[in-house]
Structure formats: C-alpha cells, structure tokens
Amino acid sequence: xxxxxxxxxxxxxxxxxxxxxxxxxxxxxxxxxxxxxxxxxxxxxxxxxxxxxxxxxxxxxxxxxxxxxxxxxxxxxxxxxxxxxxxxxxxxxxxxxxxxxxxxxxxxxxxxxxxxxxxxxxxxxxxxxxxxxxxxxxxxxxxxxxxxxxxxxxxxxxxxxxxxxxxxxxxxxxxxxxxxxxxxxxxx
Length: 188
Known about the structure:
The chain is of the alpha/beta class. The chain contains seven helices and twelve strands. The longest helix is centred in the N-terminal third of the chain and has 14 residues, at 28-41. The chain starts with a strand and ends with a strand.
C-alpha cells in the first residue's frame, strides 16, 4: 500500500480507503472480516458518513484493540432519525413544553456525533467532516448556525484531530478552504 498525507493534517492514509457503504447491511461478523482484510492490506482510512447505529456498533467492535491503526473520518451533521439517515444543520432545536431554554434545547448534531463516538468505542476521530455542503447558502448556514465553530471546538478539545468538509460544489469548497479553518476537503 502506498500512503499519502491527508490534506494539511500530517495524517498518513493509504491510497485506497473504505466508504461506509461497504459495511452497510453486513453482519457484525462480516464487518470484522472486512476490517481484518483492510488491516492486512494496509487500508487504514474509513469514511463514515452514515450514522447507522448497527453499522457503527459492528465497526467499533471490529476495531477493538486496534483503533489506532485506522483513520476515521466521521461526518458532523449526518444524523440517524426514525430509522434513516438525515442531514441536519441544527445544533439546537427548541422543544415545546419545557420551562427554561437550557432544558428546551435538543442538540441534534451534537448528540448524534457523541453517539457515533460511543458506538465506535472511541473518544476521538481523525477527521470531523462537516457533511454535504453543496450550496453557498448552505455554507452560510454552516457558519451562521455555529456548525463550523462546533467542529473547531471539537478540534481544540482533541475529539477530532482535524476539520473537514464534504462538498460537490467547487465554489463552496474554495470558499471553505480559503477560510483557513478546513484541514481536509472531500470532493467528488
């Protein structure tokens, strides 16, 4: 396996990585077998856009005792709700019927990211990837709603080693990278 430095992170990743779709619908045993094959071949980068709990739990179990061998790229703002994947831009959602603001807030993106870490059996990931930003208006929302600040807080706390952004839009990608706050760009 040949390795390259990922963005400006200093993290070395194999030229071949694994997307989470490769794990979707697989049993825990199949996920372990796939992780064993990846480990043997030197495939170390895993992109985890999906917040699917069963998949993350199986992967967390398969990596036990060898977590440090893998580069995990977990997406911020991809959430699991009502049995399916959803993209969110909510850090806080007001719930009706609660007396004060602190108890009224349900942190959708934050709660889902914390749940990913729990299921993966880790307290850190290599890349906190701000998920699927494909329009300038969406980038503005990411900045204005505090999502970029949240990713930077996670980095400062050591919960993510680097901040990433996934996009299919060149103008959005260039704008984000030019802020100097994005360490890794995932662009198809």
